[in-house]
Amino acid sequence: MTIERFDVGARMSEMAVHSGVVYLAGQVADDGSQDISGQTAQVLAAIDALLARGGSDKSKILRAQIYIADLAEFAAMNAVWEAWVVPGHTPPRATVEAKLARPEWKIEIVVTAAQ
């Protein structure tokens, strides 16, 4: 079985597809000046685009891991997430507070999806 990698860099790939499963790297906002709602929307849009490239979509997410810099922003992040997910197809999810790689990042999301 082959592994197809997308946007391969020296450190990581943005996505890998193997045996009908799409694995995304952690997605962060391009514009770190936005608030948690804006950054969450950016991240979810990036996830949509990558999943489409991998032959999948958000209704097929198998699990999501959310890293948020400040749990005080949990409710605002959830409002954007809940407007985005497909009703009846909400994936298993974990959310943890974490210090992210850049101080301007408020959220990072990793998803795994079926094709």
User: End-to-end span in angstroms?
Assistant: 15 Å
- The CATH architecture classification is 2-Layer Sandwich
Broad CATH class:
Alpha Beta
Binned, the helix content reads 25-40%
**What sort of overall outline do the alpha carbons produce when their principal axes are compared?**
globular
Q: What is the mean pLDDT? A: 97
The fraction of residues assigned to DSSP E strands is 25-35%
Please name the fourth-level CATH homologous superfamily. RutC-like
Question: What is the name of the CATH topology?
Answer: 60s Ribosomal Protein L30, Chain: A
Number of self-contained structural domains: 1
Q: What is the succession of H and E elements?
A: EEEHEHEE
What is the radius of gyration? 14 Å
Task: Describe the protein in words.
The protein is α+β, with helices and mostly antiparallel strands. The chain has a single domain, classed as 60s Ribosomal Protein L30, Chain: A. It contains two helices and six strands. Strands 1-2-3-6-4-5 form a six-stranded mixed beta sheet, covered by helices on one side. β4, α2 (about 75-85) and β5 form a beta-alpha-beta unit.
